[in-house]
Structure formats: C-alpha cells, structure tokens
Amino acid sequence: MSTNLSTLETSSLFAQSLTNGQAALQQKAKAFAEEVLMPHELTCEENNGLDEQTLRQINDQVLEWDLNAINHSKKDGGQGLTIFEQMLVNEQLGKVTNALWDTVFQPAYPMRFGTQQQKEEYLIPTNFGKRRDAYAITEENAGSDPSQCGTRADKVDGGYRINGEKWFVTVGDAADYILVHAHVDGDPESPTVFFVDKDLPGVKVKRTPMYTHNFVYEHPEFIFENVYVDEGKMLGEIGSGYNMTKDWFVEARLGIAARCVGAAIRATETANAFVADREQFGQSIRDFQGIEFMLADMAVDITAAKSMLYRTCWELSQSWERKLNHARAAAVKLHCSEMAGRVCDKAVQLLGGRGYMRENPVERLWRDTRVDRIWEGTSEVQRVVIAKQIKKRGLGIYVD
Ligand SMILES: Cc1cc2nc3c(=O)[nH]c(=O)nc-3n(C[C@H](O)[C@H](O)[C@H](O)COP(=O)(O)OP(=O)(O)OC[C@H]3O[C@@H](n4cnc5c(N)ncnc54)[C@H](O)[C@@H]3O)c2cc1C
Fold first, then answer.
1. CATH superfamily of 132-235
2. Which residue, judged by its Cα, is nearest atom 30 of ligand 1?
3. Is 68 near ligand 1, meaning CB less than 6 Å away?
4. Which residues of the chain have pLDDT under 70?
5. Beta strand 279-280 with 234-235: parallel, antiparallel or unpaired?
6. How many CA atoms lie within 13 A of 49 on its CB side?
7. Which atom of ligand 1 is nearest the CA belonging to 211?
C-alpha cells in the first residue's frame, strides 16, 4: 500500500496549526494545481508551450480563483498575501511541471515603487491579467555580476535612448512590456530600470534558444536599438536599479524554494506509489533495503527543507528586516533547490527506465528543477551571500 505524503502533511502538528484561512488557501492552491494546471502538462511538454487560447483560459481561471498577483497589495489589484501565505500557494504550484506555475502570474515586485501613473498603466492591469511583464537584467557579459551591464540609457530631450542586449528574458514571448535594467549614460553607478513596451520601434527579438525544460513560456534574447522612452518610463530614480530589487530577491528566492519543496513532494509521492506496486525478483521492490533507504533519504531531505522554509517564511511575515531577510532567503533558496535536485534524481532512479520517460512527471520535475540552482542567483552566488553575511553579522544569524 502506498503512503500518501499529502496525508502526512495535513496530519503534522505544524499543518494543524495553520489558521483556517491559511489551510483554505493551501487547499485552494492544491486544487488549482491539480484541476486546472496539471491537465495541460503533457501538451505543454510535447509542444514546448501552450496555444494562446488555452493560455487565455488559464488566465481567466487564475482570476476566477483569486490567485492573481498574490504578491501585490489589494489596493493595486493583487491578493495582498503575506510572505508566509505566498509560500503556501507556491509550494502547491511547484508540484506542476513545465513551469505551468508561471501562468499564475506574480508581477515583478519593484513595480510597487512606481508612480501612480505607472501603476495605472502597468502594475494594475498586470495584476488583473490584462498585461504581462518580463524583467531583463542578464546579458552576455553580465550574469552573476550584473554591474557588468552594457545596456545604456542615454539622456536625450524629454527622455532616454536605450541601447543594448538582454538574454534569458523569461516570459519575453508573452509579455507586452519589459522592465529593462540599464546604466544611465553608461555609468555603472547609475543602474536604473525602465518600462519598455515591446512594440516600440527598436525592440527586437534576437533569437529564442531552446532550454533543458519545456517551459510554458520562452526565454528570448532581446536587442534594444535606439529605443526612445520618455522620462515617465523610469521606475524609481536614477541609480535605484539594485535597491529596488533587494526585497524582490527575498520574495523571489523564497518562491523558488517553496516550489522546489512542492516539486520534491510530488516526485516522492510518485516514486513511493510506484515502488509499492512494482515487483521484481518475485517481490515488491519497496522491500529491498536499497530502495527503502532512498525513500528514507528523500523524506528526510524534504522534512528538513520544508521546516527551514516554513520557519523562515513565518519569521519574515512577523517582521521585515531587509538585510537579515536577504541572508536568510539566500540560505533557504540554496538548500531547497539543492534538495530538489537530490530528491528528483532519486525519484527518477526509483522508477528505473520509466523515470527517464518524458511522459512521467518525475522526469519532468527532475529537468524542470535544474534551473532553480541557476536563476535568481546560482548556488555559488547564494554561498557568496551567506559567507559574507557570516563575516559581517556573525554565525548567529544562521545557528541561533
Ligand atoms: C531558464 C532561465 C531563465 C532566466 N530568466 C531570467 C530573466 O527573466 N531575467 C534575467 O535577467 N535573467 C534571467 N536568467 C539569467 C540567470 O539569472 C543567470 O543565468 C544567472 O544569474 C547566472 O548568470 P550566468 O548564466 O551569466 O552565469 P555566470 O555568472 O557566467 O556563472 C557561471 C558559473 O560561474 C559561477 N560563479 C560566478 N560568479 C561566482 C563567484 N563569485 N563565486 C563562485 N562561482 C561563481 C556561477 O555560479 C556559475 O556556476 C535566466 C536564466 C535561465 C537559465
């Protein structure tokens, strides 16, 4: 008989201590993942995306289920969820393959620092699923070190001319505007973000590479050639490009960590059910100690990561201390993404040849979660952040 980890989840003391509202939110996200998103997984895998009509239908359902913009305030048309509540939703969405979680749009955090006019033109319609944003920082020579950004915004009469190239622009195909990180007048001390509508003259897709995963959206490379934007398109002030993204890193890294935990849980549930039914050498393979030990390691890995994730998100929802949060989120992202890699790899192993078939969710979760050790700061960059924080603030911020 297979053991259902979902049941274990709800029977844990911690799960029972969720408020009724939090438990209902968790259940809603689980139902949305299973009923609305999972049915599209195989089509998305086979076609490396979904057709426009299906995407529109999902968009409508995101709104109907009140899962739009969970990370933005109610005033701006979002759901106004705390970091802890966002995590409950993201954990469930992480169980879905092909990054279909990204259809449950969580518009870029820094847009909350926009002017009222920018909110009305960009943030609010995006929170209602009428527009879609993409965020472009990375370039050919500016990856882990974004200070090497070569995209520049030169001051001209009434506005700026943007020139440069951006790589890996997630959702760049579906977005109708891009938040472009550029150095004003080429000065690295002036990193600044601009709203750039995709239909402006001079905005071009250079190419759309294929990646390891079959993501619901693309990650095109863009060229910006003499693109004119007026002064009202600057988000924040000149030089505020990094400061605005600091709190976002916390939110985004915890979001990745939560999805990694969800992915690891689904992979383990699938593997656990498979080994219970599969017989070789005249017996159920789950009775081989080599198999049981893998499952034991997976369960322990998930427990440890989930405990860390829940604790950190709970603490952050109680009080917001920017610098400490940055340090904590780096550790949680590092641990949960590495954990998902280990667990999904074991799940593939437990399923044998079937685990290597793309039609099987464990194979897709294994491929899909690989990027979580790369984007929003690689695992090495998280270690750099953590090591710096230990030097600066002492080991206590991690071990007390
Ligand atoms: C699928 C996908 C989607 C993405 N979406 C977006 C997006 O929407 N917007 C966006 O702006 N970017 C996006 N990115 C870019 C992503 O954030 C970068 O790939 C990532 O930050 C790493 O940069 P890089 O690829 O240039 O690697 P590099 O910085 O060149 O790193 C190469 C290797 O060197 C290591 N390294 C670098 N510096 C150090 C150091 N100080 N110490 C130790 N090791 C180090 C890295 O960890 C890595 O192993 C996306 C990437 C992918 C793959």
1. Butyryl-CoA Dehydrogenase, subunit A, domain 2 (2.40.110.10)
2. 143
3. no
4. 1-13
5. unpaired
6. 14
7. 1
